[in-house]
Amino acid sequence: MRYEVLTLGSAHEGLVRTIELSGRPLGRREAAELVDAAESLVEDRSVRVVVLRATGPDFCPGPADDLDPLALGVDPAAALARLRPPVVAAVAGHCRSVGLELVLAADIRLADPTARFALPDLGEGRLPCWGGTQRLPRAVGPSRAAALLLLGETLSAGQAHGSGLVAGVSAPGQLAAAIDATVEQLLAVAPLALELAKEAVHRGSELPLRDGLRLEGALNHLLQATDDRAEGLAAFFAKRPPDFAGR
């Protein structure tokens, strides 16, 4: 697995990190390296966006023979979900089982037309254990999630988009360009606003509406006192692009 800076031009150097999977079935070593890569970013406030992608034609076709997710002792999907900046997943080819669980931990999911999504664990005598049974219903709804899990259905890229599993499907061969464009959009937003919006969405989904609205209000009050909020207002009135500092 490679862990590197995603090249988007010198102006963005150091702001974006990419975690790149092998594209083969996920083994013990690669899963542990993924956790290490994610944990190294938890306190790095210079990073504004994390991209999760793979080499080769597949994202992750499932677990390797040496991977027992329960016995691994760490949860790579949870490590990705804990990241402060938004995580953008780029999915092509087969994305099955533990591969889909990793993708579900991302905030924004984009697919190549070749992408195929499945959670076939029950047919192989096991349950998903990296959040698949919980994050999938939140992404596509209980009915579609039950069909994927209980019947072993496979979703095409178009079906995944229609169900809400992915935010968009790129043109053939244009997934990298679509990811770059999405990253550019995220980098144009104040980093603290991104962080708090991500917190509001994920924490709020676990709360009753009344408590979620209180959370939104509290986070708004917190954002009002930041330098980024003042810079956003100043840039608006001066009719210039904002220069956010992330504080």
The topology string of helices and strands comes to EEHEHEEHEEHHEHEHHHH
CATH architecture of the largest domain: Alpha-Beta Complex
CATH topology label of the largest domain: 2-enoyl-CoA Hydratase, Chain A, domain 1
Largest sheet, if any?
6 strands, mixed
Query: How many β-strands, per DSSP?
Result: 9
Strands ordered across the widest β-sheet: 1-2-3-4-6-9
What sort of overall outline do the alpha carbons produce when their principal axes are compared? globular
Instruction: Please bin the fraction of helical residues.
Output: 40-55%
Alpha-carbon Rg, integer: 18 Å
Describe this structure in words.
The protein is globular. The protein folds into two domains: 2-187, 2-enoyl-CoA Hydratase, Chain A, domain 1, CATH 3.90.226; 191-238, Lyase 2-enoyl-coa Hydratase, Chain  A, domain 2 (Orthogonal Bundle). The relative contact order is 0.11. It has helices at residues 28-39, 76-81, 98-104, 132-140, 142-150, 157-163, 175-187, 191-204, 209-224, 227-238, and strands spanning 2-5, 16-21, 49-54, 87-91, 94-96, 108-111, 116-118, 154-156, 168-169. Mean pLDDT is 84; it is low at 1-12 and 233-238. Helices cover 43% and strands 15% of the residues. The strands form two sheets. Strands 1-2-3-4-6-9 form a six-stranded mixed beta sheet, with helices on both faces. It has a three-stranded mixed beta sheet with strand order 5-7-8. The protein is of the alpha/beta class. The longest helix has 16 residues, at 209-224. It starts with a strand and ends in a 9-residue tail after the last helix. It contains ten helices and nine strands. Helix 3 (98-104) packs across helix 4 and helix 8 runs antiparallel to helix 9 (209-224).
